[in-house]
Amino acid sequence: MVKFVANTPVVQPDAQVKVDASATAPLPLGANRFQLIVVDDAGNESEPAFIDIIVRDKEKPTAVLQLVNADGRVISPAEVAFGQSFTLSAAKSSDVAPGKVVEFRFTLIA
Fold first, then answer.
1. β-strands 49-55, 74-75: how paired?
2. Which residues make beta-bridge pairs with 33?
3. pLDDT single digits (tens) 37-46
């Protein structure tokens, strides 16, 4: 069983790792970002790749932010060119029924 500790790499030869979580040792609510760096047999390190995992609350609403193109298709942030406009979508945000999300607050963090 692998225990993830914030900002501490889990180093292993396998390409997959199970993230164990339980009621007594959960991931925090909201977005949790994982990073991957791979190293080749010459010791060269890749640039990091990231994935955000959304852990949903059972009572409060959960915000989910995505990037979409003009057709509404979800795209990777890596697909945005310099000077190109894009759309942020919170359409996947939700609340536990019968509640509903009534306000979205978008902020550029500098």
1. unpaired
2. 52
3. 888 988 888 8
